[in-house]
């Protein structure tokens, strides 16, 4: 989506109809496969008959792979190339320049490109496969609401999903037993709520990341106080349900590979420390790499020609960091702690 926003291409969202039925024929080596009629039967087929499956169908373990083989082969025939990092991401080049991109998740597509891409890839795709829908500019993709703004930027929101999150039912009497261990039924409910919120975290709400992660680490030894914390997290999810990820239309020439890292101190289960990493905007190994930290002493040591650290182990680690930065041409930047956005992955609230 960053590619689409930066190039100013229109956002396209599509869904292939009956994708698994588009896969290749079943291999003869696996033998013949017969299936019962579905409830209600099939028009023109006698009741009690068996149907032989000659192609992959939904429910077979190799159906997703067969569909991917089919779709990727069609894309390859249209001139696209699969990414070396993600086999479900495809690039289209024209005259040695990037002209379009296709992202595939099972039968859902998110794509965009220039006029040549639409003529030589999109149009043939529409002829090859039937689509349930094909939306331009906005739509739902993998449970997330995508919307392209006038300047080409794209917002990712899960507002309705956030509003649907439900807390745990805790009676007033149970609330007073804060230090009591929870029951297995309560543990199962706690896992369910945190699992739902964690999916929200990975999609559009990193601000809930640290709190959710810290509570997940406590599930096996949770107390009633932790259940109350879960409900507070659900309330925060509702309060900020309109929060979203905003993919800016950064000019391609200004795009960089940026990594931000942070760690709390002994705030996790067993006095462990919660760490968080955020990687932003990367699609070429030719892009400059920038690392951002909020630890001023580390920044000062890496910028100095010498390492003035008395502790030998720390001095060696600083030298290794400087060596790796020089080897990979990494530029280090310092950011004030109050501005460190990755704090949401290490500290609750």
Fold and architecture overview:
There is one protein chain. This protein is of the alpha+beta class. It has three domains: 2-137, no CATH class; 159-245; 251-345, Ribonuclease H-like superfamily/Ribonuclease H (Nucleotidyltransferase, domain 5), CATH 3.30.420. Helices cover 32% and strands 24% of the residues. It has ten helices and 16 strands. It has helices at 2-7, 63-77, 115-128, 159-163, 172-175, 184-203, 209-216, 224-239, 296-303, 312-327; strands at residues 12-16, 33-36, 50-53, 80-82, 89-94, 97-105, 108-113, 131-136, 138-141, 144-148, 154-157, 244-247, 257-263, 275-280, 289-293, 330-334. The strands form four sheets. Strands 4-5-6-7-1-8 form a six-stranded antiparallel sheet. Strands 9-10-11-12 form a four-stranded antiparallel sheet, with no helix packed on it. A hairpin with a 2-residue loop joins strand 5 (89-94) and strand 6 (97-105).
**Percent of residues in β-strands:** 15-25%
* Radius of gyration from the alpha-carbon trace, in angstroms: 25 Å
Q: Tell me how many strands there are.
A: 16
* Strand line-up in the sheet with most strands: 4-5-6-7-1-8
Structural class: alpha+beta
Task: List unreliable stretches of 5+ residues.
Answer: none
Integer tally of domains: 3
What is the overall number of helices? 10
Summarize the helix and strand pattern as letters. HEEEHEEEEHEEEEHHHHHEEEEHHE
Largest sheet entry: 6 strands, antiparallel
What is the straight-line distance between the termini? Answer: 29 Å
Question: Tell me, what's the shape?
Answer: globular
What integer is the average pLDDT?
89
Fraction of residues in helix: 25-40%
């Amino acid at each position: 989506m960053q590619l689409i926003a930066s190039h100013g291409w229109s956002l396209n969202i599509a869904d292939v109809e009956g994708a698994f039925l588009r896969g290749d024929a079943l291999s003869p080596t696996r033998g013949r496969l017969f299936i019962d009629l579905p409830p209600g039967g099939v028009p023109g087929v006698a009741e009690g008959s068996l149907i032989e499956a000659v192609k992959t169908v939904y429910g077979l373990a190799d159906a997703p792979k067969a569909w991917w083989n089919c779709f990727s082969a069609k894309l390859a025939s249209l001139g696209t190339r699969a990414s070396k990092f993600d086999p479900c991401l495809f690039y289209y080049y024209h005259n040695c320049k990037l002209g379009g991109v296709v992202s595939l998740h099972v039968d859902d597509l998110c794509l965009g490109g220039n006029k040549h891409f639409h003529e030589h890839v999109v149009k043939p795709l529409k002829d090859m496969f039937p689509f349930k829908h094909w939306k331009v500019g906005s739509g739902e993709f993998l449970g997330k609401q995508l919307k392209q703004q006038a300047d080409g930027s794209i917002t990712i929101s899960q507002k309705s999903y956030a509003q649907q999150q439900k807390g745990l039912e805790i009676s007033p009497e149970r609330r007073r037993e804060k230090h009591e261990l929870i029951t297995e039924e309560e543990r199962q409910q706690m896992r369910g709520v945190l699992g739902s919120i964690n999916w929200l975290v990975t999609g559009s709400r990193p601000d809930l990341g640290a709190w959710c992660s810290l509570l997940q680490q406590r599930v096996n030894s949770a107390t009633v106080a932790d259940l109350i914390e879960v409900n507070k997290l659900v309330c925060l999810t509702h309060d900020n349900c309109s929060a979203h990820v905003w993919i800016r239309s950064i000019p391609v020439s200004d795009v960089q590979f940026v990594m931000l890292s942070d760690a709390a101190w002994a705030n996790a289960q067993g006095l462990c420390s919660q760490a968080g990493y955020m990687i932003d905007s990367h699609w070429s190994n030719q892009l400059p790499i920038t690392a951002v930290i909020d630890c001023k002493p580390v920044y000062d040591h890496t910028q100095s020609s010498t390492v003035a650290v008395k502790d030998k182990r720390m001095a060696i680690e600083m030298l290794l960091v400087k060596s790796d930065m020089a080897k990979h041409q990494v530029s280090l930047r310092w950011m004030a702690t109050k501005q460190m956005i990755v704090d949401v992955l290490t500290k609750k609230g």
